[in-house]
């Protein structure tokens, strides 16, 4: 069975959720978010899961989520946490779309958001900027490797991003 899901991957703060919501509007498809699924499963926020259980526990939840998505979800837009691209079965879940931006572009986007403080506070791996840059640099080439489609989102209107994604799917 062809799954026809669209999976959005990319670094924290690049706008996966925003693009997912815009895709919903344009395509009429449903959308889900892997971090939201994990928070519901655990009945606590990602930040709390990291604090109380540590990162490996969170990654195991991502794996469980990835298996469920592969087996049970179709025709859906799936936005993911920034580390979800590492799931071995990601390409079996659907078409993988990488939302690409420079690190500075991501920081600018976060800082220009009305809820910038909250966007930073809720992300455990964005607390230390030096570490965050290192993480970004360690991931960029892998995001591209996993992706079926790469969309440069930096300084691009949401409308145009959505058009590009739907045009390439
Ligand atoms: C993570 C990104 C976060 C969240 C968790 C870990 C990562 O999601 O899954 O804090 O490893 O990059 P966002 O990309 O939505 O911030």
Structure keywords:
about 170 residues, alpha/beta, five-stranded parallel β-sheet, 9 helices, 5 strands, binds shikimate-3-phosphate
Summarize the structure.
This protein has helices spanning 16-27, 34-42, 46-53, 55-72, 90-93, 103-112, 116-121, 129-146, 158-168; strands spanning 6-9, 30-33, 76-79, 95-100, 149-152. The protein has 169 residues and is an alpha/beta fold.
- Helical content stands at 55-70%
Along the chain, the helix and strand elements come as EHEHHHEHEHHHEH
The main sheet comes to: 5 strands, parallel
Q: Determine Rg (CA atoms, Å).
A: 15 Å
In total, how many beta strands?
A: 5
Q: If strands are numbered along the chain, what order do they take across the biggest sheet?
A: 2-3-1-4-5
How far the N terminus sits from the C terminus, by CA atoms, comes to 17 Å
């Amino acid at each position: 069975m062809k799954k026809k899901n669209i999976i959005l991957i990319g670094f924290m703060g690049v706008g996966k959720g925003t693009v997912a919501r815009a895709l919903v509007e344009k395509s009429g498809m449903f959308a889900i978010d892997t971090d939201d699924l994990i928070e519901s499963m655990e009945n606590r926020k990602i930040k709390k899961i990291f604090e109380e259980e540590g990162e490996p526990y969170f990654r195991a939840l991502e794996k469980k989520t990835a298996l469920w998505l592969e087996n049970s979800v179709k025709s859906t837009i799936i936005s993911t946490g920034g580390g979800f691209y590492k799931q071995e079965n990601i390409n079996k879940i659907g078409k993988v779309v990488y939302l690409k931006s420079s690190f500075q572009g991501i920081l600018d986007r976060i800082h220009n958001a009305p809820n910038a403080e909250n966007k930073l506070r809720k992300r455990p791996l964005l607390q230390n900027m030096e570490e965050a840059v290192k993480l970004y640099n360690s991931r960029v080439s892998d995001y591209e490797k996993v992706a079926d489609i790469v969309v440069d989102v930096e300084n691009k209107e949401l409308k145009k991003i959505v058009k590009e994604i739907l045009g390439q799917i």
